[in-house]
Amino acid sequence: LIRYSMHFASWKERKKIAVALRAIYQAESADAARARLEEFAAGPWGQRYPSIYMAWERKWEQVTPFFAFTPQIRRIIYTTNAIESLHSQVRRSVRVRGHFPNDRAATKLIYLVLRNVESKWKRPPVSWQQAKSEFAIRFGDRFGAMN
């Protein structure tokens, strides 16, 4: 949504708008984020680029579930480089394998890629260790099986 929002802004103002949007997605709760979104809409950037506000408004139901997580987990979720790296490793493994006899075989391959992804990082995402602890607490058995 951040990248999509930047498509509406001029090149000169993208950094300033990104700072204004950061206040929304780094808010403590969904209610605080909603208040910050309304402040954005009423402020100079919302007046100048109403399409950014409308895009956030349309996707608000998809944004609010992220506020159920702690800030460490949210940072990992919206850190684009880490997610893109993960996706590229999964795509590469699937492409090398070629075809799968059934869905279970594909699921196993993806599981193995996810299990070994951390060992291939040259540098883990910022706050990964904190997020990893949070994942272990929140998801218990499912996360523990991957370590």
TrEMBL record:
Keywords: DNA recombination, DNA-binding, Transposable element, Transposition
PANTHER family, alphabetized: MUTATOR FAMILY TRANSPOSASE, TRANSPOSASE FOR INSERTION SEQUENCE ELEMENT IS1081
Protein's UniProt keywords contain Signal: no
GO biological process, one term: DNA transposition
GO molecular function: DNA binding; transposase activity
Protein name according to UniProt: Mutator family transposase
Known role: Required for the transposition of the insertion element.
Matching Pfam families: Transposase_mut
Family membership: Belongs to the transposase mutator family.
Protein's organism: Eiseniibacteriota bacterium
